[in-house]
Amino acid sequence: MMPGMGNREALIQGAKQCLFEKGFTRTTARDIATAAGVSLAAIGYHFGSTEALLSQALFAAVEEWGGRLSQAMAAGGDPAAIWDGVIESVRSDRAMWTVQYELVGQIDRAEQLRTFLTESQRYARSELGELFGSSAEGEEQRLLAGLYQAILGGLVMQWLIDPENAPSGADIVAALSLAARRGASEVEGDDHEGADGQG
């Protein structure tokens, strides 16, 4: 058993370790019991099933990680620094990010996971709306929050798969500015075409 812990706490810690080392779907009850240093029977006694234990360990791990990510993003003084905080989180908490992407593929098989991930995503969207769209309200803030959440997901995916070519925080800010300028230019072009057509 892990030093200074009862069986329940040791199982949660062991399950966290297995989540990060093997992932959600590849972790077995025996893996967790071995990591925790307790008997297989202890899993059923304390949690009822291996899936319930893994879920509890996941919820605890995400809560801890979420606090670290929020601090990293809030520490940024400008948008580029905020995105760099996300990138640093991928570097330091890679296993946590990887597990979450793995879980997306399991949501149709586990209702508890779907509920948890849905609530986590809504909370993250709200936090991003406050962080990036604090001057906006209502529908504008909702739209901005959704956009930044989409950017965050894509940014993390790029850093997990191909970090050598993934964008930096400054790249993201520059790209958003470029997209805004190009979008405005296209709208102006459409307006001129419409006016010419009417003339």
TrEMBL record:
Residues 28-47 bind DNA. Pfam families: TetR_C_31, TetR_N. Residues 5-65 form the HTH tetR-type domain. Keywords: DNA-binding. GO terms for molecular function: DNA-binding transcription factor activity; transcription cis-regulatory region binding. This is TetR family transcriptional regulator. It comes from Kribbella antiqua.
